[in-house]
Amino acid sequence: MKILGIETSCDETAICLIEVDEKTREARILGNIVHSQIDVHASYGGVFPTLAKREHQRNLVPVLRKALAEAGTLEEAAPAPMPEKIKEILAREPELLEAFTASALSIKKPDIDYISVTVGPGLEPALWVGINFARALATLWNVPIIPANHMEGHILTALVRKNGDSYKIIGKEITFPALSLLISGGHTEIVLIEKPGSYRIVGETRDDAVGECFDKIARTLGLAYPGGPKISKLAAEARAEDINSPEPLPRPMIDSKDLDFSFSGLKTAVLYLVKRLTDAGALDERAKKGICREAEDSIMDVLTAKMRKAAETYAARSIVVGGGVIANTRIRQALETLAADSSLDMYLPQTDHATDNGLMIALAGFFNIEKAVSAETDLKANGTLRIGK
Ligand code: KG4
Ligand code: ZN
Fold first, then answer.
1. Beta carbons of 314 and 202 less than 8 angstroms apart
2. For residue 389, what pLDDT is reported?
3. Ligand 1 centroid distance, CA of 41 (Å)
């Protein structure tokens, strides 16, 4: 079966077309395009919801065309007359309606069986653009829509194993109970997976998400959004040049009895340290690099300590990590070491599948198709959708 996954929950407009062999559970990526809005949001130091909504409206049709072209399934047809129903669906997205009229109606129906789309969690105005685009395409091409949970998508990118040109979907074959660590710009959660598709949140952040913490620290240091990759680069330079932070930073909640996190204190500690250094005229490049190194280490220490505790508490047999922050090499390595030391099986996404993309949504769609989830009549954005209890 062929599934078109559409992701617009945050600042990436992403579409991926996969073909899954249901018997062998091999998935082939036919076309996979991610259009990042980083440049648009960089000057705000974070994602600006109204701008994200506008950008998704402008980018969805071009991204769709690119994804279909990459898949070799983009064909032009005489433009279909605009159905009234699509006008209604896109009434709240005028720029998307314009783009759809100008260049989606003339796309010949591609060979796809399902459209899966992120319904949450994320920024609701951004989610709605993707959902309404999916509804418009589903109407135009007469294909069913499958809702997808963004966080389940992140988990599933870790549960594919590269096998030549394709990816074997191993979501059902891993060792259970599994513990998933979800670390992104909006979420920091430890999710217990006792069997395939059963999720229970056993720990989560009480304030900032870990990616958000990276982004806010970066902003304090004058580094552009998204901060994670920049901090990680400067931290690596600090290690290579043997530079340390002028002062140690806290490891918030590292010894707490529960599996929860708190990252706002770390962000504030950096803010005060930077202020003291600035007042003393001592905030030079060396100091900045040292702070990046220490901040990354603090986050790494907290994440590994909590995962160690969670693995003991739930007698976990495997660890599954998802979310943009697992693009971080040092955090990857620390979690790999933890898994090796504790004899746990480890599942990590390919680095280029860690941040938001359409593949994760196509995979989540596939799981929901198997579970016979359908929500065509009640397809709603849910900004605070949770993956489990
Ligand atoms: O999963 P994602 O793409 O979007 C959300 O669903 O939030 O995660 C984005 C987050 C950003 O906060 C970004 O700074 C962080 O992932 N990130 C990183 C790295 N690459 C991306 N954080 C640390 N190190 C990285 N290399
Ligand atoms: Zn994400």
1. yes
2. 78
3. 14
Helical segments of the chain, H only: 38-41, 49-70, 84-89, 94-103, 124-141, 150-158, 210-220, 227-240, 264-279, 285-313, 329-341, 359-370
| Ligand 1 contact, 356 CB (< 6 A) | yes
Which residue type, as a one-letter code, is found at position 112? I
Instruction: State residue 241 phi and psi, 5-degree precision.
Output: -95, 5
* DSSP letter (8 states) at residue 40: H
Contact 190, 181 (CB under 8 A): yes
37: its two tokens: 């809005």
Q: Which amino acid is at 145?
A: I
Ligand closest to 210 (CA) is 1
Q: What DSSP letter does each residue of 3-19 carry, written as one string?
A: EEEEE-SSSEEEEEEEE
CB 16 within 8 A of CB 27: no
With a cut of 60, say whether residue 377 has pLDDT above it. no
CA–centroid distance, residue 230 to ligand 2 (Å) = 18
Q: What is the pLDDT of residues 282-340, one digit of tens each?
A: 999 999 999 999 999 999 999 999 999 999 999 999 999 999 999 999 999 999 999 99
Write the CA distances from 96 to 80, 85, 215, 232, integer angstroms. 17, 14, 30, 36
Give DSSP secondary structure letters for 282-315: ---HHHHHHHHHHHHHHHHHHHHHHHHHHHHHTT
- Give the atom of ligand 1 at the shortest distance from the alpha carbon of 210: 12
Structure tokens at 13: 């407009």
pTM: 0.96
pLDDT of residue 46: 80
